[in-house]
Amino acid sequence: MTWKPTKKSIQNSNIGKLMKKLEFTNYDDLWSWSVQNKEEFWQQTVASLNIIQHKKYDQILNLNDGATQAKWLYGASLNIVDSCFQNDDDATAIVFQKPNKDLQKINQKELLLLVNRIANSFAKLHIKTGDTIAIDLPMTLECVAIYLAAIKAGIKVATIVDSFTPQEIAVRLEITKPKVVFTQDFLSRAGKSFPLYKKVVSANAAKIIVLQTTTSNDFSLREQDLFWDDFLSENTNFTSVKQTPQESITILFSSGTTGEPKAIPWNHTTAIKAASDGLYHQNIQQNDVVCWPTNLGWMMGPWLIFATLLNKATIALYYDAPLQSDFGMFVQNAKVSMLGVIPSIVKHWKNSGCMEPLDWSVIKNFSSTGEVSNPTEMQYLMQLANNKPVIEYCGGTEIGGGYVTSTVVQENIASTFSTKALGSDFVLLDDNHQKTKKGEVFLIPPIMGLSTMLLNKNHHAIYYKDTPKYTTILRRHGDELAELDDGYFKILGRVDDAMNLGGIKVSATQIEQVISTLDFVKECAAIAVAPKDGGPAKLVVFYVCKETKTLSDEDRLLHAQKVVKKQMNPLFKVSDLIKIDVLPRTASNKVMRRTLRDSYKN
After folding, report:
1. Which domains can be identified in the chain, with CATH numbers?
2. 3-state secondary structure string, 312-367?
3. Is the per-residue pLDDT at 507 higher than 80?
4. Which residues of 20-46 are buried (b: 16+ CB within 10 A; e: fewer)?
5. 3 state DSSP class of 249
6. Peptide bond into 446 cis (omega under 30)
7. What is the distance between the alpha carbons of residues 240 and 85, in angstroms, rounded to a whole number?
8. How far is Cα 177 from Cα 181, in angstroms, rounded to an integer?
9. Which of 124, 193, 132, 127 has the alpha carbon at shortest distance from 159?
10. What is the phi/psi pair of residue 439, to 5°?
11. Which residues, 6+ apart, have CB-to-CB distance to 461 below 8 Å?
C-alpha cells in the first residue's frame, strides 16, 4: 500500500512552498541544491524559522577548523529559547492530560511567564550561567518549562530518562555534576505508581527539587531538598542570556561500544536542525498539534520541544503510557495533526485493536523512529487516520535529528525512507570501502546538528578516526542501509556493537556486563536480531556456561531477564539465552557479533 500526494497537498506543504519560491519543479532537484549549496539552504531555513539573533551571524558557516568542527551562525549572539515564543500570545503552546483528568491547555503567554518564573528561581540556589542542572521527569508541562527556563538562563541541562535505574542515573550525574536535579515524587503508568524521587536519592544526587503528584502526608524530603512550590519565584520578568551559537544547552546520553554512555552536548544550532526537520520532513505548520510520546532523556524529547515551538505549533503531552484507548481519545480530543510513534507501540495497537473506534481524521501525517518498522504494521497505522502517510525518520542523538527520512511531497511506501534529509548527505560503503547499494552509512560533513565534541570521550576517535578515504572526509555513524531499486532506502540495523531495544539505544557491552554477574555465566555476547518479517529487534544473548549449580534453560533465561530489568531497564527483555561452547572471536580477540547474528535462527 502506498500514499500519493495530490497537487494541492504538495503546494500547501512547507517543502512545496520552498520549491515554488526557488522555482524547482521536482523534489530531487531541491535536495541536490540543499547539499550543493549548504550555506544558501541554511540561510533560507534560518530565515524561514525566523531565528531571533541579538547580533546577526557574520558567516552562516565557518570552516576555519575544518568540516569536523563546523561552526554554524558564526559570530552571532542569541538564545534559541527566544525563538520558541513567536506565535500569538493566546495561541495554545501545550495541550496536556493527566491520568483520569480532563484535557488542559496553556497558551504561549502563560508558558512564557512560567518559564520566566523558573529562570528567576535559579538564583535562589546560587545556580548561574554556565552551570548544569539535571532533569529526571516524564514529559509534562513543568518538564518542558524547566528545560526552556534553564536554557534561557544560560544553564546547561543534563537530561535523564525517567525509567532508568539508580545505577544508570548515578553514572549520568557523575559525568555532568549538576548543581540540582529536578524530579517528582512518583511516576504513574497504567494505573501503577513508581517511586521516582527515591531513585534519584539512591543515585546520590546532591540536591533535588521535587514536584508533588500526591498529597500524602507520608512523603518527606531529605534536609537539603526542596518542594517545587518552595523553589518557584513569583517574578515573571526575565531577559534571556545571550550566547554564541556553539554554547552547549543540553547534555544527552547515547551508548557507544563501551559501558559508559557518551555524553553528547547540543548547542543552539542543534535545535535549529531539529526544527528544520520538523519544518520540511514532518511538515509542521503554525498551530498544528504535535504529539510524540517520548522523554526528555531521549533526543526526541528536546526534538519535540524545538521542532514544535520553533515552528509555532502546539506540543501535545499525555501523562501516561500511550498503549490504550485513553491515549487514542487524547489524540482525538486534542486534535493532534502530527503523531509520532515507535513501531512497537503500533504493534501493540494492532494486536489489541484499541484505536480502531476512534476518530483520527485530523491527523495529517504520522512519523516513526527509534526502531526498524514492519510494513504490515505501518500500513495498519496509515489506515487508523484514513490513509495518511508515515514519515520514516532515522538519525541520532549526535545528529540532532535525521539523516534519512521521508517527505509529504513524494510517494509514501510503508517502512521505507524516500530521501536523505534536506541539507545533509551520506554514502554507503561495503567492507572494502567501496560505494555500494547495501552497506554502512558514512555521513558527509558539514551538516548542521552534527556534534563536534563529547564530554567524556574522544570525539574524533569515535566518529572520524580511520574512516575510509573518499572524495571528502567521512563521519562514522554505525547504521547499515540498503538503497532499493526505486531509490528509496531501508534500514537493516547496526553494524557496530550498539543495539536498539524498544527505541532505546544501548551498547552490547552494557548488557554483557550485567549478564556476566550471573553465577552460571563464564562469558557472554549480546546481539539484537531483527525478525524476518521486520519490526523491533529482539535481544538475544549467547553465553559460555560456568556450572555452579543445576538450573534448567528456562530458569537461566528467567534469571537473565530479571537481572537486565532490575539493573538496566524494565523495558528491556531478553528474548533468548543460548548456550555455546566458545564465543567466536577475531585475531585481535574481538567478539564477532555479526557471526552470531548470522547464525541465529528466528
Report:
1. 500-599 (3.30.300.30)
2. CCEEEEECCCCCCHHHHHHHHHCCCCEEEECHHHHHHHHHHCCCCCCCCCCCCEEE
3. no
4. eeeebeebeebbebbbeebeebbebbb
5. strand
6. yes
7. 12
8. 10
9. 132
10. -175, -165
11. none
Q: Is residue 76 a contact partner of residue 57, using CB atoms and an 8 Å limit?
A: yes
DSSP 435: B
Tell me the residue type at 419.
T
Distances (CA, A) of 424 to 37, 292, 427, 442, 444: 11, 24, 11, 11, 7
Q: Which of 34-43, 135-144, 574-583 has the lowest mean pLDDT?
A: 574-583
Rounded to whole angstroms, the Cα distance separating 477 from 459 reads: 12
Residue 555 cell numbers, joined: 530458569
Question: For residue 13, which of 410, 493, 386, 465 has the smallest C-alpha distance?
Answer: 410
Tell me what the pLDDT averaged over the chain comes to: 93
**Cα(180)–Cα(225) distance, rounded to whole angstroms?**
9
Contact 234, 117 (CB under 8 A): yes
51 vs 60: CA distance, rounded Å: 12
pLDDT by residue (tens digit) across 453-492? 999 999 999 999 999 989 999 999 989 999 999 999 998 8
Residues in the chain: 602
- Determine the 3-state secondary structure of 424 from DSSP: coil
Q: How many helices (H) and strands (E) does the chain have?
A: 18, 32
Cα separation, 390 vs 379, whole angstroms: 9
Note whether 341 and 384 are within 8 A (CB): no
* Phi/psi of residue 104, nearest 5 degrees: -125, 155
**What strand order describes the sheet that includes 248-254?**
226-227, 208-211, 181-184, 132-135, 156-159, 248-254, 262-267
- Cα separation, 322 vs 303, in Å, equals 19
Closest CA to 243 of 79, 133, 116: 79
CB 319 within 8 A of CB 96: yes
- Pairing state of beta strands 475-483 and 438-443? antiparallel
The pLDDT-based confidence of 501 (bands split at 50, 70, 90) is: confident
- Residue among 505, 576, 516 at smallest CA distance from 540: 576
Coil, helix or strand at residue 30: helix
266/251 Cα distance (integer angstroms): 6
Q: Sorting pLDDT into bands at 50, 70 and 90, what band is 497? A: low
In the prediction, which pLDDT does 258 show?
Answer: 39
pLDDT for 259: 56
Rg (C-alpha) for the chain, rounded Å, is 23
307, 278 in Cβ contact below 8 A? yes
H or E segment and range at residue 398: none
